[in-house]
Amino acid sequence: MPQHSAIITGASRGIGLGLVRALADKGFSVIATARDPNASDGLQELVSGGLVEAHTLDVDDPVSINALAKAVKDQPIRLLIHNAAILKGQEDLAAFDTSDFLSSMRTNVVGPVLLTRALLSNLKAAGNATILHVSSQMGSVEGNSSAGDYPYRASKAAMNMVSKGLANELRDYGVVSVAMHPGRVKTELGGKEAPLLPDVAAREMIETTLGLTLDHTGSFIQRSGEVIPY
Ligand SMILES: NC(=O)c1ccc[n+]([C@@H]2O[C@H](COP(=O)([O-])OP(=O)(O)OC[C@H]3O[C@@H](n4cnc5c(N)ncnc54)[C@H](OP(=O)(O)O)[C@@H]3O)[C@@H](O)[C@H]2O)c1
Fold first, then answer.
1. Is residue 227 part of a domain?
2. Is residue 230 part of a domain?
3. Which of 19, 55, 99, 140 is the most exposed place for a label (fewest CB within 10 A)?
4. CATH number, domain at 13?
5. Ligand 1: which residue has its CA nearest to atom 20?
6. Domain for residue 158, yes or no?
């Protein structure tokens, strides 16, 4: 019987699928969520291996979030990974689009907040839970020396702020909250030119995440654990 449970969003492909594989390899009981789990051959393959359970979850939809929380019931959750995100490419101010901005905030920030709230009792029940916000270096205000991508950058900066606030709010429950940049990874979002394979990035992300303690809560880190300026 596996010791720990983990929940991951956006597990249909890319880094999310790699994170499911890495956690299953570590013996976690993984609840892998996706908008349409049946449409992902990679996820279905992992489900047939036995340690992975697939659930439908659209992080934009509060009904879907509450349905997942109901399905998980009172099961302690050791690790919650907010991985699902969208990137709407926008070069500059002229290309700014309100609808893209709001949908990025919805998927990349509001969805994760609502999901954390829905699963809060499960996280507290674990005693030493971690909330991993898969963020991006593009969300670093300090590190930004370029223009454009306003929806994505702003949504990841907002996610970082939420991660820090949750670290402060949940410290007394033993819950660690961090934001992590996975590196430039070859996925639909990261593009073909990115140097890292999703499984390699995911394995390193999990190694670092499983070593986190309350000493690290509230930090913004690379997948190696090195601190990134907010
Ligand atoms: N790749 C990189 O170089 C890179 C760099 C920095 C940060 N990141 C971050 O890493 C994370 C994973 O990105 P990725 O590169 O693996 O991207 P990806 O291949 O495009 O995968 C994105 C995932 O998010 C899911 N998703 C999108 N909207 C959703 C929603 N409303 N509800 C549930 N799932 C939703 C997608 O599901 P569907 O299959 O249903 O569309 C897909 O599983 C993101 O948070 C991203 O910002 C990536």
1. no
2. no
3. 99
4. 3.40.50.720
5. 189
6. yes
Confidence of residue 51 (pLDDT cuts 50, 70, 90): confident
Q: C-alpha 2: how far from its chain's center?
A: 22
Domain range for 149: 5-222
The residue nearest atom 44 of ligand 1, judged by CA position, is 85
Q: What pLDDT, in 10s, does the model give residues 112-151?
A: 999 999 999 999 999 999 999 999 999 999 999 998 999 9
Q: Starting from the edge strand earliest in sequence, which strands make up the sheet with 220-222, in order?
A: 52-56, 29-34, 5-8, 79-82, 130-134, 176-181, 220-222
| Ligand 1 touching residue 194 (CB < 6 A) | yes
CA-only gyration radius of the chain, Å: 16
Q: How many separate domains does the chain show?
A: 1
Which ligand 1 atom is at minimum distance from the Cα of 11? 43
pTM for the full predicted model: 0.98
